[in-house]
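Hi Y.,

Following your request, here is the sequence exactly as I used it, all 235 residues.
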Amino acid sequence: MKLSVPAYQLKRQAKRLSREENIPLHAALDRTAAKEGFGSWSLLASRHDELPAAARLLSSLQPGDLLLVGARPGQGKTLFSLELAIEAMKIGRRSAFFSLEYTQKDILGRFHALGVEPAEFDSRFEFDGSDAIDAGYMITMLEAAPRGTLVVVDYLQLLDQNRQSPDLVDQIRELRSFARNKGLIFVFISQIDRSYDPANKPFPNLGDVRLPNPLDLSLFDRACFLNDGAVQFPA
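Below is the corresponding structure, written out as tokens. Let me know if you'd prefer a different format.
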């Protein structure tokens, strides 16, 4: 049975339905599947879906990797990064979320938007919203983190907003070295320049990353970009 739109767009519709009608995500997914002629989302997924994008991307990351997640505002880069953290916790790893923009309440709300109960991962998830966040601060807080821990940094362009912090490029080099020594995975949420126009190309790329301060983007091992409910992670 052919779907009216690709499965990833149906997922996006279900998430919107879940928020608008305040129903669990699994119920919204089943309702969306019913409109496509399937008895449940699991039946639809078994025929038309593959592993979630976050799970596929996580499986390609190695301890020590630095990943950049870029998108324009409202395209779900924070939500997708949290999905990566959740996928890591599902397989027994720990996750940490450092944010210079959101509060713990905001992030716990994102868990609910994904249909996940935060208490399920309470012992594996740590949130830090300190104004002191920079490379040195995170290294201190993560010194005892076990190998394989996935660390989300929200967001890249805010890391050197404090004049007492080192230059952004020096911080990323320091975190890259730390990640490799400790076997951690760092996910950096990144802004995309306003000049990016989706009418000209479906996804932004490294050339569209907003860089108010100099940064060597080759320091990142992988990058993925989001637009209009879809995810692209180039080789």
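The chain has a mean pLDDT of 92.

Thanks again,
Q.
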